[in-house]
């Protein structure tokens, strides 16, 4: 979280904040296009929105990050151990995302606004590189999803999390508590999360491969189509 705070400060100092925001907006649109079918699905819609809004979203997570940073050393005392691990997964995912987004934004800014968005993004992605980091990002998200599926079946843990609401608010941890509650609620109604997580893995791995390896023009057309699908879905 200290790394994320430093990246945000760097972005503002270097005039990158707007570029980072534009990159996040485009990525959120791509996600909405890729999962347009699941965002409206009666069983998978809530979990898909959780992933979009809490992990891949374009929101400002400064408040939640500050809360996590304040209690990182004591989180095992304040939350049940299994729930605390979800917060650790969230922190790693968020740190990876912020690091990669800022690197992308540097190239996005250098390429300038004259290029079509899909071309600008694809070129920025390839100049950033970091395939191993992309794969790690997806692996942590998958682990978080599996843990949420497992933990939401433990009624005692659900009760313990709800009992944490007032202490968490009193301790100034409301945003972090809300993240955990939203995750439990989304996966609690999901039932078997295996098809959902398998689809996330399949589609995101495909986009990692396309953005790194596919013919540039073909990749740009595919990304443009996905962004257009997001506009139709919204």
Q: Overview of this structure, please?
A:
The longest helix is centred in the middle third of the chain and has 31 residues, at 81-111. The relative contact order is 0.16. Helix 7 (81-111) runs antiparallel to helix 9. This protein is 82% helix and 0% strand. The chain is an all-alpha fold and 234 residues long. This is DUF8198 domain-containing protein. Residues 8-215 form the DUF8198 domain. Pfam families: DUF8198 (PF26621).
Produce the secondary structure layout.
Blueprint: H1 2-13, H2 17-34, H3 36-39, H4 45-55, H5 62-71, H6 75-78, H7 81-111, H8 117-128, H9 131-151, H10 155-163, H11 165-170, H12 174-188, H13 194-213, H14 216-233
Helix pairs in contact: 1-7, 2-7, 2-14, 4-12, 5-12, 7-8, 7-9, 8-14, 9-12, 9-13
Q: Summary?
A:
The protein is mainly alpha-helical.
Q: Unreliable segments (pLDDT under 50, ≥5 consecutive)?
A: none
Q: Hey, roughly how much beta strand do the residues contain?
A: under 5%
Helix content: over 70%
Total number of β-strand segments?
0
**SSE-based structural type:** mainly alpha
Write down the Rg.
18 Å
Q: How many strands, which pairing sense, and closed or not: the largest β-sheet? A: none
């Amino acid at each position: 979280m200290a790394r994320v705070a430093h990246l945000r400060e760097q972005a503002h100092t270097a005039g990158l904040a707007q570029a980072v925001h534009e990159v996040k907006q485009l990525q959120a649109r791509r996600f909405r296009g890729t999962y347009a079918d699941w965002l409206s699905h009666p069983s998978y819609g809530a979990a898909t929105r959780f992933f979009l809004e809490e992990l891949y979203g374009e929101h400002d997570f400064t408040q939640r990050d500050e809360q996590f940073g304040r209690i990182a050393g004591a989180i095992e005392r304040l939350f049940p151990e299994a729930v605390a691990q979800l917060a650790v997964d969230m922190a790693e995912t968020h740190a990876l995302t912020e690091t990669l987004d800022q690197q992308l934004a540097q190239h996005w800014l250098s390429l300038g606004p004259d290029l079509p968005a899909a071309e600008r993004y694809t070129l920025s992605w390839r100049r950033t590189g970091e395939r191993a980091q992309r794969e790690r990002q997806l692996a942590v998200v998958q682990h978080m999803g599996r843990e949420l599926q497992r933990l939401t079946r433990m009624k005692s843990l659900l009760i313990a999390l709800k009992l944490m609401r007032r202490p968490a608010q009193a301790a100034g941890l409301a945003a972090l508590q809300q993240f955990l509650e939203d995750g439990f609620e989304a996966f609690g109604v999901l039932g078997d999360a295996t098809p959902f997580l398998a689809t996330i893995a399949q589609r995101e791995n495909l986009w990692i491969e396309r953005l790194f390896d596919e013919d540039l023009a073909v990749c740009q057309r595919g990304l443009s189509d996905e962004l257009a699908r997001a506009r139709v879905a919204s």
